[in-house]
Amino acid sequence: MQPVVLLISLILMALLSAVFYMASKASEGEAPGPNANSKRTGLIWAMVVLGVIVSVGSLRSWPHALASTGDALEVNVSGGQWWWDIDTTEIPAGTPVNFNVTTEDVTHGMGIYDSELTLLTQVQAIPGYTTKVTYTFAEPGSYQLLCMEFCGVAHHDMVNEFEVVAVEE
Hints:
Elements: H1 2-27, H2 36-59, E1 73-80, E2 83-86, E3 90-92, E4 96-103, E5 108-113, E6 119-125, E7 131-136, E8 141-147, E9 159-165
Parallel strand pairs: 1-4, 3-9
Antiparallel strand pairs: 1-2, 4-7, 5-6, 5-8, 8-9
Pfam families: COX2
Organism: Phaeobacter porticola
GO cellular component, one term: cell envelope
């Protein structure tokens, strides 16, 4: 998705640059005619409509595609100062997992890291709400839940682990 957004952004930047170039060239020519304001208004409205279409089209899958998949394994995670609780300790590799995340006290940031401490996915844990994030673990191994938002003096103790196990076929 990111290469598509990058390509769309580059195309729009090129179009905008062309518009500015043409505007600067037009300012050196004859005086504007009686319909110049209506042409400008039409151009501005066309750019607004194009911007809305591109924004909706490019952002449509965010974040809804990442949140909650119907056929996924449901895993509940709750947090508090300064702990994470996860209702399972083993997750099958290759299976989409919906993490339902909540907290009982303050806002936390739940990050899932692999054994090399590479961040795989993250979601905010907000008191009174259940936030969701879906992730599919490709490799078996040990994974950690860490808090990503400073939440108090023992923030660094917010660590929990779980295992992703290979699925036998």
